[in-house]
Amino acid sequence: MFMSKISNSFFMRFIMRAIILFAVAKSISLVLFWYLPKEGVTQNSNKNYVAMYQKVDFKTMLQSAKKGSIAGIKSIDSRAGKGITIAHLILKAIYATQKKGFVVVAKKTNPLQTSIVALGEQYEGFTLNSILKQSAIFYKNNEEYVLELEAANPNKQRVIKGEKNGDTQHVDKVDVSKEDLSFYTKNPEEIWKEISIAELKEGEEIRGFEVKDVKKGSKFESLGLKKGDVIVKVNNVVLKSYKDAIDIYQNVGDISGIALIVLRDNQEVELVYEVN
Length: 276
Known about the structure:
It is a single chain. Helix content is 31%, strand content 32%. By secondary structure, it is of the alpha+beta class. Among the domains are: 63 residues, Roll (SH3 type barrels), CATH 2.30.30; 119 residues, Pdz3 Domain, CATH 2.30.42. Strands 8, 9, 10, 11, 12, 13 and 14 form a 7-stranded mixed sheet that branches. It has a 4-stranded antiparallel sheet with strand order 4-5-6-7, with no helix packed on it. A hairpin with a 4-residue loop joins β1 and β2. The longest helix is centred in the N-terminal third of the chain and has 34 residues. About 21% of the residues have low confidence.
Protein backbone atom coordinates (compact mmCIF):
# COMPACT_ATOMS: atom_id res chain seq x y z
CA MET A 1 0.00 0.00 0.00
CA PHE A 2 2.82 2.27 0.99
CA MET A 3 4.75 1.41 -2.15
CA SER A 4 1.73 2.16 -4.28
CA LYS A 5 1.45 5.61 -2.78
CA ILE A 6 5.13 6.35 -3.46
CA SER A 7 4.83 5.19 -7.03
CA ASN A 8 1.76 7.31 -7.61
CA SER A 9 3.43 10.34 -6.05
CA PHE A 10 6.55 9.96 -8.27
CA PHE A 11 4.44 9.53 -11.37
CA MET A 12 2.38 12.64 -10.59
CA ARG A 13 5.54 14.74 -10.16
CA PHE A 14 6.89 13.52 -13.51
CA ILE A 15 3.64 14.35 -15.24
CA MET A 16 3.57 17.81 -13.71
CA ARG A 17 7.15 18.55 -14.79
CA ALA A 18 6.43 17.36 -18.31
CA ILE A 19 3.33 19.55 -18.47
CA ILE A 20 5.31 22.55 -17.23
CA LEU A 21 8.13 21.98 -19.77
CA PHE A 22 5.60 21.59 -22.58
CA ALA A 23 3.86 24.81 -21.51
CA VAL A 24 7.14 26.72 -21.43
CA ALA A 25 8.19 25.35 -24.83
CA LYS A 26 4.83 26.23 -26.30
CA SER A 27 5.03 29.75 -24.91
CA ILE A 28 8.49 30.24 -26.35
CA SER A 29 7.39 28.95 -29.78
CA LEU A 30 4.40 31.29 -29.75
CA VAL A 31 6.63 34.25 -28.98
CA LEU A 32 9.06 33.29 -31.73
CA PHE A 33 6.25 32.73 -34.18
CA TRP A 34 4.87 36.18 -33.40
CA TYR A 35 8.11 38.15 -33.79
CA LEU A 36 10.02 36.26 -36.41
CA PRO A 37 9.28 36.96 -40.18
CA LYS A 38 6.80 34.71 -41.88
CA GLU A 39 8.92 34.21 -45.05
CA GLY A 40 11.48 31.49 -45.26
CA VAL A 41 15.18 32.16 -45.28
CA THR A 42 16.89 31.95 -48.70
CA GLN A 43 20.54 31.13 -48.74
CA ASN A 44 22.68 33.50 -50.87
CA SER A 45 25.28 31.35 -52.51
CA ASN A 46 28.46 33.02 -53.70
CA LYS A 47 29.21 31.70 -57.16
CA ASN A 48 32.90 31.52 -57.91
CA TYR A 49 33.73 31.36 -61.65
CA VAL A 50 36.87 29.47 -62.32
CA ALA A 51 38.33 29.82 -65.81
CA MET A 52 39.10 26.67 -67.74
CA TYR A 53 42.75 25.81 -67.59
CA GLN A 54 44.58 26.40 -70.85
CA LYS A 55 48.28 26.22 -71.50
CA VAL A 56 49.55 29.45 -73.08
CA ASP A 57 52.85 29.65 -74.92
CA PHE A 58 53.69 33.34 -75.01
CA LYS A 59 56.62 32.77 -77.37
CA THR A 60 54.31 31.21 -79.94
CA MET A 61 51.79 34.02 -79.48
CA LEU A 62 54.42 36.67 -80.13
CA GLN A 63 55.74 34.87 -83.20
CA SER A 64 52.20 34.50 -84.62
CA ALA A 65 51.47 38.16 -83.99
CA LYS A 66 54.71 39.13 -85.74
CA LYS A 67 53.92 36.95 -88.74
CA GLY A 68 50.42 38.39 -88.93
CA SER A 69 51.80 41.93 -88.89
CA ILE A 70 54.26 41.13 -91.67
CA ALA A 71 51.56 39.46 -93.76
CA GLY A 72 49.34 42.50 -93.30
CA ILE A 73 52.11 44.82 -94.48
CA LYS A 74 52.80 42.67 -97.51
CA SER A 75 49.16 42.61 -98.54
CA ILE A 76 48.94 46.39 -98.26
CA ASP A 77 52.14 46.81 -100.24
CA SER A 78 50.92 44.47 -103.00
CA ARG A 79 47.68 46.40 -103.31
CA ALA A 80 49.51 49.73 -103.30
CA GLY A 81 51.96 48.57 -105.97
CA LYS A 82 49.40 46.94 -108.16
CA GLY A 83 48.80 50.01 -110.34
CA ILE A 84 51.31 50.76 -113.09
CA THR A 85 52.69 54.31 -113.05
CA ILE A 86 54.65 56.10 -115.77
CA ALA A 87 57.79 55.53 -113.69
CA HIS A 88 57.40 51.79 -114.29
CA LEU A 89 57.66 52.18 -118.08
CA ILE A 90 60.60 52.48 -120.48
CA LEU A 91 60.51 54.26 -123.84
CA LYS A 92 62.81 52.13 -125.94
CA ALA A 93 62.35 53.50 -129.48
CA ILE A 94 60.46 56.19 -131.40
CA TYR A 95 59.18 56.42 -134.95
CA ALA A 96 57.27 59.47 -136.09
CA THR A 97 56.30 61.36 -139.23
CA GLN A 98 54.15 64.44 -139.67
CA LYS A 99 50.98 62.34 -139.81
CA LYS A 100 51.61 59.11 -137.94
CA GLY A 101 53.98 57.28 -135.68
CA PHE A 102 54.49 54.72 -132.97
CA VAL A 103 56.75 54.01 -130.02
CA VAL A 104 58.24 50.88 -128.52
CA VAL A 105 57.68 50.62 -124.78
CA ALA A 106 58.30 48.06 -122.06
CA LYS A 107 58.04 47.64 -118.31
CA LYS A 108 61.14 48.06 -116.18
CA THR A 109 60.39 44.73 -114.57
CA ASN A 110 60.67 43.02 -117.96
CA PRO A 111 62.51 45.32 -120.39
CA LEU A 112 62.77 42.65 -123.10
CA GLN A 113 58.97 42.29 -123.26
CA THR A 114 58.39 45.19 -125.68
CA SER A 115 55.15 46.47 -127.20
CA ILE A 116 54.47 48.67 -130.20
CA VAL A 117 52.03 51.48 -129.40
CA ALA A 118 50.65 53.68 -132.16
CA LEU A 119 49.25 57.18 -131.71
CA GLY A 120 45.88 56.97 -129.98
CA GLU A 121 46.50 53.47 -128.65
CA GLN A 122 46.77 52.49 -125.00
CA TYR A 123 49.44 50.69 -123.03
CA GLU A 124 48.78 49.80 -119.38
CA GLY A 125 46.06 52.45 -119.28
CA PHE A 126 48.24 55.21 -120.79
CA THR A 127 47.11 56.63 -124.14
CA LEU A 128 49.83 57.77 -126.55
CA ASN A 129 48.92 61.34 -127.46
CA SER A 130 51.97 62.72 -129.25
CA ILE A 131 55.57 61.91 -130.11
CA LEU A 132 58.48 64.33 -129.71
CA LYS A 133 62.13 64.04 -130.70
CA GLN A 134 63.32 62.42 -127.47
CA SER A 135 60.10 61.65 -125.63
CA ALA A 136 56.48 60.61 -125.90
CA ILE A 137 53.44 62.18 -124.26
CA PHE A 138 50.79 59.93 -122.71
CA TYR A 139 47.45 60.73 -121.09
CA LYS A 140 45.76 58.89 -118.26
CA ASN A 141 42.74 60.09 -116.26
CA ASN A 142 42.97 63.50 -117.96
CA GLU A 143 46.57 63.96 -116.79
CA GLU A 144 49.60 64.34 -119.04
CA TYR A 145 52.71 62.19 -118.60
CA VAL A 146 56.03 62.58 -120.43
CA LEU A 147 58.14 59.47 -120.99
CA GLU A 148 61.75 60.16 -121.98
CA LEU A 149 63.63 58.00 -124.46
CA GLU A 150 65.72 55.36 -122.76
CA ALA A 151 69.39 56.33 -122.38
CA ALA A 152 71.78 54.63 -124.74
CA ASN A 153 73.04 51.27 -123.50
CA PRO A 154 76.43 50.17 -124.84
CA ASN A 155 75.41 46.51 -124.52
CA LYS A 156 72.22 46.93 -126.50
CA GLN A 157 71.72 48.52 -129.90
CA ARG A 158 68.48 49.83 -131.31
CA VAL A 159 68.21 49.85 -135.10
CA ILE A 160 65.27 51.35 -136.95
CA LYS A 161 65.96 50.52 -140.55
CA GLY A 162 64.40 51.63 -143.84
CA GLU A 163 64.53 54.15 -146.64
CA LYS A 164 65.01 57.79 -145.74
CA ASN A 165 62.11 60.13 -146.19
CA GLY A 166 61.97 63.89 -145.96
CA ASP A 167 59.04 64.00 -143.55
CA THR A 168 60.81 61.89 -140.95
CA GLN A 169 61.47 63.97 -137.84
CA HIS A 170 64.42 62.26 -136.27
CA VAL A 171 64.96 58.68 -137.52
CA ASP A 172 65.10 56.85 -140.81
CA LYS A 173 61.66 55.89 -141.98
CA VAL A 174 60.58 52.33 -141.29
CA ASP A 175 58.54 51.16 -144.24
CA VAL A 176 57.28 47.64 -144.89
CA SER A 177 54.49 47.59 -147.45
CA LYS A 178 51.41 45.44 -147.02
CA GLU A 179 51.83 44.40 -150.64
CA ASP A 180 55.22 42.87 -149.85
CA LEU A 181 53.82 41.09 -146.81
CA SER A 182 50.90 39.76 -148.85
CA PHE A 183 53.22 38.60 -151.61
CA TYR A 184 55.55 36.69 -149.30
CA THR A 185 52.62 35.25 -147.36
CA LYS A 186 51.11 33.82 -150.52
CA ASN A 187 54.50 32.79 -151.96
CA PRO A 188 56.61 31.49 -149.06
CA GLU A 189 59.05 29.87 -151.50
CA GLU A 190 60.15 33.40 -152.50
CA ILE A 191 61.29 34.00 -148.92
CA TRP A 192 63.83 31.20 -149.09
CA LYS A 193 65.23 32.61 -152.32
CA GLU A 194 66.24 35.77 -150.48
CA ILE A 195 67.06 34.55 -146.98
CA SER A 196 68.13 31.30 -145.39
CA ILE A 197 67.09 30.61 -141.78
CA ALA A 198 67.69 27.58 -139.55
CA GLU A 199 66.85 26.77 -135.97
CA LEU A 200 69.57 27.28 -133.35
CA LYS A 201 69.42 24.86 -130.44
CA GLU A 202 70.95 24.68 -126.99
CA GLY A 203 70.61 21.05 -126.08
CA GLU A 204 67.04 20.07 -126.92
CA GLU A 205 65.63 23.60 -126.67
CA ILE A 206 65.37 26.06 -129.54
CA ARG A 207 67.26 29.24 -128.71
CA GLY A 208 66.04 31.09 -131.79
CA PHE A 209 66.34 31.08 -135.59
CA GLU A 210 69.69 31.91 -137.13
CA VAL A 211 70.07 33.83 -140.39
CA LYS A 212 72.44 31.70 -142.47
CA ASP A 213 72.49 33.93 -145.54
CA VAL A 214 70.80 37.08 -146.95
CA LYS A 215 70.70 37.81 -150.67
CA LYS A 216 72.24 41.13 -151.54
CA GLY A 217 69.76 43.73 -152.74
CA SER A 218 66.81 41.73 -151.41
CA LYS A 219 63.96 43.04 -149.30
CA PHE A 220 65.31 41.25 -146.28
CA GLU A 221 68.69 42.95 -146.59
CA SER A 222 66.94 46.33 -146.68
CA LEU A 223 65.24 45.38 -143.42
CA GLY A 224 68.60 45.27 -141.71
CA LEU A 225 68.96 41.52 -141.20
CA LYS A 226 72.50 40.20 -141.48
CA LYS A 227 74.13 36.83 -141.76
CA GLY A 228 74.72 35.42 -138.29
CA ASP A 229 71.77 37.21 -136.67
CA VAL A 230 69.71 35.03 -134.34
CA ILE A 231 66.04 36.03 -134.25
CA VAL A 232 64.82 35.38 -130.70
CA LYS A 233 61.61 37.39 -130.51
CA VAL A 234 58.99 38.83 -132.85
CA ASN A 235 56.40 41.28 -131.49
CA ASN A 236 56.96 40.14 -127.90
CA VAL A 237 56.68 36.45 -128.82
CA VAL A 238 59.72 34.44 -127.81
CA LEU A 239 60.56 31.96 -130.56
CA LYS A 240 60.99 28.63 -128.83
CA SER A 241 59.40 26.41 -131.46
CA TYR A 242 58.39 26.27 -135.11
CA LYS A 243 54.79 26.72 -133.96
CA ASP A 244 55.64 30.18 -132.56
CA ALA A 245 57.15 31.20 -135.91
CA ILE A 246 54.25 29.73 -137.93
CA ASP A 247 51.63 31.50 -135.77
CA ILE A 248 53.32 34.85 -136.40
CA TYR A 249 53.67 34.09 -140.11
CA GLN A 250 49.98 33.21 -140.44
CA ASN A 251 48.86 36.44 -138.73
CA VAL A 252 51.38 38.78 -140.32
CA GLY A 253 48.70 40.39 -142.49
CA ASP A 254 46.84 41.69 -139.42
CA ILE A 255 49.69 43.58 -137.77
CA SER A 256 50.55 47.26 -138.09
CA GLY A 257 54.09 47.05 -136.80
CA ILE A 258 56.91 44.55 -136.50
CA ALA A 259 59.54 44.48 -133.77
CA LEU A 260 62.35 41.96 -134.04
CA ILE A 261 64.90 41.26 -131.34
CA VAL A 262 68.01 39.54 -132.67
CA LEU A 263 71.30 38.51 -131.16
CA ARG A 264 74.18 40.02 -133.11
CA ASP A 265 77.76 39.57 -131.93
CA ASN A 266 76.43 38.54 -128.50
CA GLN A 267 74.46 41.76 -128.25
CA GLU A 268 70.73 42.34 -128.48
CA VAL A 269 69.65 44.41 -131.47
CA GLU A 270 66.09 45.64 -131.88
CA LEU A 271 64.71 46.09 -135.40
CA VAL A 272 61.45 48.00 -135.57
CA TYR A 273 59.28 48.47 -138.67
CA GLU A 274 55.94 49.98 -139.56
CA VAL A 275 53.57 48.25 -141.96
CA ASN A 276 51.92 50.59 -144.47
